[in-house]
Here is the input.
Amino acid sequence: MKIDNSLPLEYSTEENRLKILGFWIFLGAEIALFSTLFTVYFVLVNGVGNGPSPKDIYELKMVLIQTFLLLTSSFTIGLGIHAMRLGLKKAMMTFFIITLVLGLGFLVFEIEEFITYVHEGATIQTSGFLSSLFTLLGTHGLHVTFGLFWGTAILMQVKKQGFTPETTNKSFIFSLYWHFLDVVWIFIFSFVYLKGLM
Amino acid sequence: MKQLFPVSHVMGFVFSLVLSLVALTVVFYDMSYAMGMTILLITAFAQASVQLLMFMHMGESKDKVTLYTNIAYALFVGVFTILGSLLLLVWDI
Amino acid sequence: MKWDEFFVFTHDPMLFAAMISIVLGGLAIFVGLTYFKKWGYLWTEWLTTVDHKRIGVMYILVALVMLFRGGVDALLMRAQSAVPENGLLNAQHYNEIFTTHGLLMILFMAMPFIIGLMNVIIPLQIGARDVAFPRLNAVSFWLFAAGAALLNISFVIGGSPDAGWTAYFPLASLEYSPTVGNNYYSLALQISGIGTLMTGINFIVTILKMRAPGMTLMKMPMFTWSVLITNVIIVFAFPVLTVALALMMLDRQFGTQFFTMSNGGMDMLWANLFWVWAHPEVYIVILPAFGIYSEIISTFARKNLYGYKSMVVSMVAISLLSFLVWAHHFYTMGQGVMANSIFSIATMAIAVPTGVKMFNWLFTLHKGKITFTTPMLYSLAFIPIFTIGGVTGVMLGMASADYQYHNTMFLVAHFHYVLIPGTVFAVIAGFHYWYPKVFGYQLNERLGKLGFWLITISFNVAFMPLFILGLNGMTRRMYTYSEETGFGPLNMLSFVGALGLALGFIVLVYNIYWSARYSPRDTSGDPYDARSPEWSTHSPVPVYNFAIVPTINSLDAFWYAKKNKAPFFEGKYEPIHMPSNSGQPFLMGVAFCFWGFFMVFSWWIPAIISALGIFATMIYRTFERDHGYYISVEEIERTENALRGDKQ
Amino acid sequence: MKIKWALLSLIFTITTVLTGCDQPLLVLDPKGPQAKTLSDTIIFSMVIMAGILLVVYILYAYMLTKYRASKMGEDYEPPHEEGSHTLEIIWTLIPVIIVVVLSVVTVRSTSDVEAVPKGYEEDKPLVIYASSSNWKWHFSYPEEGIETVNYVNIPTDRPVEFRLYSHGPISSFWIPQLAGQKYAMNAMINELNLVADAPGSYIGKNSNFNGKGFAHMDFEAQAMTASEYVQWVEDVKETAPKLSEKEFNSLLEIDFVGRKTYSSNHLTFSPPPVGNHGHNPDEKDGKDASEDESNSHEEHNQH
Ligand code: HEA
Ligand code: HEA
Ligand code: CUA
Ligand SMILES: [Cu+2]
Here is the structure.
């Protein structure tokens, strides 16, 4: 396997470069996926039936906490990759752990929010609006959940194998994934919650 | 310690926090629907660009043209799907 | 659930026969494999393979089987409507049959056939040793196979989907379609769709990053271009299907309100999402066909492709436009004149880039030296027949007029006129054309031509009458009609055509058998004196494709190398890195198939266990360290000499 | 090739003989201004398409007869041809012009058939609610206060406004000789305007697949002179039974019925959906949905 030392480790082999490009294209598909979910939400947001409307259930405080957690985690994983490029394994792992913890925190608050909704009688079965809301948020939440497992698996490998073309490549791709989840959240934050409360 | 926190990343983070705060104004100030949507669109796309360009290093590799094309195509499809669906199903024109 | 709901065949002799033949067929394969001790061979050479050529062959094999399955469906439908008030099929059967016919033909025949051809050919055409992600490629195939298996099982266990391949809500909702049929729809399509999405990513990266040195984008063969653009459409269209199917599953099995008639749901949203995906889908199956025709026409006209650049530009234009026209499938849903007009104009605009391609093909023939081989015959027949399909498409594209064509046989005629001379002719042409590359001998020409004439003539006999029936007010999806409608004679004519088509396809199958036994081996690797790089290597192609990667300095470089008697391969052998085989993709496919099956019946515990199985294969993959293997220089020399030794 | 042409012309003659002799095709035999507009549009587009096909076929025949290998000689070697800008411009521009023409025709004819037919704008339209349920059509005449099942009578030379909806899956209301089709759906009303020029009995059907009984879901549209129509309405009012809610519900339940006539209609106890496109009557326009939301907000605060 040819290793190009002029590039960061995660780009250093041809295979790694293929994987990074491939993942970006996957993210393009993810944009299409979330756009569709947003389409569904925008079309159904007025379809409240006999259930509550957005204004009845959205709570700004919860949303702000979630937003802050996710934004920060996106920042820390960026720092993690930066540390990785400096070859600082311990710093990198610390940042990754912080990221995952923040992600977990986000998830806890999101689940909390879902539970509140359900208690208020707003379930995924209540109305077109709520079905689309839960599906949009749920898909994002599942992505975060998946990310937690994936990130943990990568951390285990970094810990054991150190920085190799493979582990750095996986970590970098994971960081792309995580940043992307933040991008999606920004749109949820703006066009679901803020627009809904506007 | 300092090398762990590169200025660009810190700036990016601060910037995204600020943009979030700006977006928040639509909730707290009374404004027209058009105005609110404009603010949200600008802040959301600005934040997304911060993530893509600054944190995700979109422009750093030799494939950057591919990456930009990819994202542009995705946005094209996404935007037209959303607008077209609203035109067909919701807007009464 | 009662047993006779589960095994639907118990109260139907025809399905019972189908069930028996499936069981017997399975048994025969099992016994055969055991008797000839081929289990090991099957496992190591096929089930675990990551070789793009073999994966391609498996795709094509499944696609052929599905062509016959879907074709038998078609024959049954045509037989049923051949005479008024026919009692061959009842309404429920007819509904299940046209639904599965549409699904199988488009998603499990046309698309996989194309994906199969592109698997076999693309790496060869760009001078690569494999695709970018060989392992992922195998996963794609096994997910597709899992989806195909699931949809076919529905025929005998639980009942097939019966709400049309479009599955419009509320008809496809639990209330109006209470069997598990549409659960199969959502899950089978979901699983194979994920596979297709991964294929899309894989081939984009392959084509963008793995081309032989010197092959810039504008020096790529046209088939490669068409596949690149097709995969771009796949990547952006399939996520829409993923979402739509997920919502369908949620509505049917989890009580959500997306498409319901109360509580704020919206039935039209399904139609909208479905076509946002399904319109690009029809271009997914036609663009590679355009690529195949480009290759074949230029080969057998012995001329370079006319207007190469405009061919590329027009395909890019089609790919963008394909995302802007979906509403032409429901002009009659009641949106305003404005919305209909916008979509109408966008729809008709596609005629322009398609026309550019038409005229470029015609001018490729100009001053050429045309030989009428079987693949060329199909490609030539494509031009006049597809144009009929295309211009009738433009007629449908006119919103006002479509109020009269919509849901009629006129529409059915349109889409068979584009799908069959467009896609089916192309894959058959490609099949004949590239057959020697894969198997080392050509298909028999006489049988090939016989099949061609049967198919082409019968096709027109079968579908031309439908245009007229449509204008006479015959709607689609009617299992029967009365005498006084006067639809009888033309339907009978169409049935005769369908029989002719069947005959044509039987000749094709016979040709495969005949040629396997009697065809002489092609030792040159380049039987047609063709132009693109896949013809520069041996037939059949060695695992590593090219012993030495060629350097490309122009479009049709191989052709010019031959003409100028210049060497095409320069350099010396070096060890070649290859990916190793793996059983993980196959096991993943099996796990997905079980998961889908249990989900269909809402058996949650087994479904969760299968889902854990899927995750187990994924976790195994993350921790796996597999660096592939090297083929040594000596071994390359040995293989090359053996392959060349054949050449007397 | 010859075989193919022979065959094509054979098909052509067979089909014209089979269909041409007794009756013109339904869609091309309009009996009202809307269907006439559509039929004209269709014939116009067919002529254009025939022209395009002709061009393609002539070029095709030329290439295939002139440049076959058997005619070109053993050692003829085709030249390299890059492409030609002039030709490319021609075969881009001409189709563009054709598409523009077709677009103009489309937009015009679409707005025509979506509106009340020309010349009838001043007349008071006859409103008929046509709703589908499991393979039946219910026709309710709100002003006359009567209802029919599986047949509809309309006066000639008077605009009729059908208001379409469905009690179940999407169906499509189509009387080919009077107007193009339109969907009938559950939560909204679609409007279809038509006028019948000539008295007569026209085939009407559901053209959108909606389950098992779909093939049998047709009805008769009978156009009669104004006086006959008035007479018929009077007769119905006098002789037909009333439609009770119970009877209506049982009608909805069964798969098929024959013709029925009632001297009252179901709109009184089972009102049609209110919304237009966008489904929610009070929030028709997505753009100011937020204002609407703030209105409805108060009501929702109760829980
Ligand atoms: C391979 C598949 C394929 C292809 C290539 C096409 C191509 C086209 N299709 Fe078709 N279509 C289908 C598959 C396909 N279609 C299917 C499966 C359905 C029905 C699904 C269902 O309901 O079940 C359908 C349905 C369908 C409808 C919906 C009708 C309805 O439901 O009422 C419409 C309406 O606009 C339409 C239009 C077109 C147009 C404008 C093109 C154009 O792309 C055609 C362009 C080509 C040409 C025009 C010919 C060559 C050009 C020239 C020679 C240049 C000069 C020409 C002009 C200026 C006109 N198609
Ligand atoms: C690529 C796509 C594709 C292809 C190739 C075909 C091929 C054919 N189709 Fe189909 N069709 C669709 C896509 C396709 N179709 C779709 C999308 C629909 C809409 C579905 C819906 O409404 O939901 C449809 C609907 C459809 C209908 C409409 C039903 C209705 O609305 O009432 C009809 C009716 O005649 C029909 C007929 C045919 C026929 C006769 C063929 C023939 O060309 C088939 C030729 C093939 C054979 C005849 C097989 C030959 C093999 C044998 C005979 C087996 C011999 C066995 C051995 C040797 C082992 N198709
Ligand atoms: Cu259903 Cu509009
Ligand atoms: Cu389409």
